[in-house]
Amino acid sequence: IRPLNNGCAFLCDDSGTVMFHPELAYGKRMDDVAQTKGASFQQTLERDSNGKELVEYTRDGVEKEMAFQKLLNGMTLATVANTADIQASRNTLVLNIAMASIIILLIAAVVAWMLGRRISRPLNDLTMAAQQVAAGNLDVKLPQARVAEISAFVDAYETTVDHMRLQMDMIEQLAQHDELTKLWNTAAYDEHTASLQEAVEGG
Fold first, then answer.
1. How far apart are CA 133 and CA 144, in angstroms?
2. Nearest residue to 77 via CA among 20, 32, 158, 143
3. Number of helices followed by number of strands (H, E) in the chain
4. Is the dihedral of CA 61, 64, 70, 75 positive or negative?
5. Residue 121 CA to chain centroid, in angstroms?
6. What's the pLDDT band for 182 if we cut at 50, 70, 90?
7. Among positive and negative, which fits the CA dihedral 157, 161, 167, 170?
């Protein structure tokens, strides 16, 4: 087992005597070749461990970190890696997470911008159409929208405008025609005659 670049796994007993190590001879005491921070190797191995606690030590001038687990036969299985390799791996992981976060944020911003445009453009068009209707132009063409909720609102507004157009036509019909005879009333006739006279005089 070779964790990271220069790591290894080895077996030793409770006293820290090597049973198997790819770089140390059988029977070698770890306390003779490694310097731990704090307790000796033997004292460290006598503690209970869940395999997650990291023990720092130095061997041949190289800082290392070790995790160990007690086995049922009384021996200890240890996994070791150079501290520099562990830190490099952590730095790479942090960098990858940061890059992934930036990419996700950029994608989210682009999607939000596109959704915003998809919603705001038909709303702006609808606002302009509503302003024309308010100014009296009932023949304005209302824009179609792709968003279901906005499209439903446009349809309802268009129906309202159609009703207003019919009401205006009805009012105009009543204003210009006699309700009993269905003929043009005097005011409408005079207005129509005057407009024809102006057209004739204007050439």
1. 16
2. 20
3. 5, 6
4. negative
5. 23
6. low
7. negative
